[in-house]
Amino acid sequence: MFGIIKERLHQKFRTLDYPFAQPALSPRYLGRPRIAGGACPDGCTACRDACPTGAIALQAERCQEGIALDMGRCLFCGACAQACPRKAITFTQEHRVASPTRDGLIITPQSPTDVPADRSPGRDLSLFARSLKFRQVSAGGCGACEADCNVLGTLVYDMGHFGLDFVASPRHADGLVVTGPVTENMRAALLDTYAAVPEPRVVIAAGSCAISGGLFAREQECHDGVDSFLPVDIYIPGCPPNPWSILDGMLSVAWLKARQK
In percent, how much of the chain has pLDDT > 90? Predict the structure, then answer.
């Protein structure tokens, strides 16, 4: 016991005053992408060919209108940025990538460089302004997104001081955080879990698999994400999303506004 107290005094205060203080991320971290304007060389499809999930689309045959990158499919591997001969695609250190709509995950040269100030879901969830409990469902995930959800309970992130928590039963939950591409074996379990959550219920799709199927899209045993079955309030892209990205997505619902007041 004394050893634990001594170590805590040595480590001092570790919880970040988020969102008022921003996290220090690794220089290797690849966050919200940015796409430069201008036309690509004729016939160049290097970025599209390098993408393992088909997240890159050329907006015109000769790419005069630029590139579109779907963060919902993106693995944030950086292969497209390395392949682009004119370096039109870059990945910033911005961890705030969550969106209340699927279309909000599409990045083009016309996309604003700043994160939108209001990313609240399109319905009134002010009932959860001070407290929100989630049941986390791994619908065929590999464990990476699940691990980054679990770490939110540690001292650094301390999700509990926002009134956020993961609970063991859907009957004690206000919503679901779903990871994984929704395999056929998990489809019925996911639907049963959703039905057990009292209304109004929140659904968060965390990770590229939960949003689009990711690397497993169009596979026979997968269903390409959560919104094939359930209404999604917040999409959090990444493979896996950074824990700060997941926390930011959770806080984009109405209770963050209450805390800022």
Answer: 64
- Is pLDDT of 65 > 70? no
Q: What's the one-letter identity of residue 45?
A: T
| Distance between CA atoms of residues 191 and 39, nearest Å | 45
As a whole number of angstroms, the distance between CA 249 and CA 123 comes to 15
**Helix, strand and coil percent figures for the chain, each rounded to 5:** 30, 15, 55
For residue 138, what are the β-bridge partners?
179
* Contact between residue 197 and residue 174 where contact means Cβ atoms under 8 Å apart: yes
Q: Is the distance from CB of 178 to CB of 227 less than 8 angstroms?
A: no
CA angle 81, 82, 86 (to 5 degrees): 70
Rounded Cα gap, residues 254 and 228, in angstroms: 25
- Helix (H) and strand (E) counts in the chain: 8, 10
pLDDT number for residue 4? 73
Q: Is the pLDDT of residue 259 over 70?
A: no
Q: Are 180 and 140 in contact (CB under 8 A)?
A: yes
Helix (H, G, I), strand (E, B) or coil at 62: coil
* Token pair in block for residue 91: 């990945």
Token couple for 51: 């993408």
- Strands of 25-124, DSSP E: 33-35, 56-58, 67-70, 89-91, 106-107
> 188, 196 in Cβ contact below 8 A?
no
